[in-house]
Amino acid sequence: MNIVNLTPHDIVIIPQPGDTPIVIPPSGTVARLTEHTKSAGTLNGVIPVTVRNFEDKIEGLPERERNTVYITSMLVADAAWAAGRSDVYCPGEAVRDSTGRIIGAKSLCAISGRWH
């Protein structure tokens, strides 16, 4: 099975504490949703606040390919599954170090639990 990372950073999978991490490097292509941002004022008259809306249009997601799955952000994976793409996953439950920093994920996640 081909696993293609469509994020800009390594995906690190650590299924169990003490397991050797599985590192999936970025492919060089990043899948993203088209977004629109508009101003929504400020907090305390100083901190800008914006509203972001995401379209269902996914940029950078290749067509289905036999024996290939794609790793994307949760937002992109959700839009892909809603469009019928069962080959798109996102990192699952976070694995954190002793300071609370995310160092990996326990699994890959299929959005909405829809399995084919």
Strand content: 35-45%
Count of discrete alpha- or pi-helical segments spanning 4 or more residues: 1
Mean pLDDT across every amino acid position: 93
Order of helices and strands: EEEEEEHEEEE
The biggest beta sheet reads:
4 strands, mixed
Total number of beta strands: 10
Radius of gyration based on Cα positions: 17 Å
Strand pairing plus helix content: what structural class? mainly beta
* Helical residues, percent: under 10%
Biggest sheet, strands in spatial order?
1-6-7-10
Shape: flat
What is the terminal-to-terminal distance?
Answer: 16 Å
Poorly predicted regions: none
Integer count of domains: 1
Give an overview of the whole structure:
The protein has 116 residues and is mainly beta. It has one helix at 74-82; strands spanning 2-5, 11-13, 22-24, 32-43, 47-59, 68-71, 88-91, 94-96, 102-105, 108-109. It has one domain (2-113). The protein contains one helix and ten strands. The strands form four sheets. The chain has a four-stranded mixed beta sheet, with helices on one face. Strands 2-3 form a two-stranded antiparallel ribbon. It has a two-stranded antiparallel sheet with strand order 4-5. The relative contact order is 0.23.
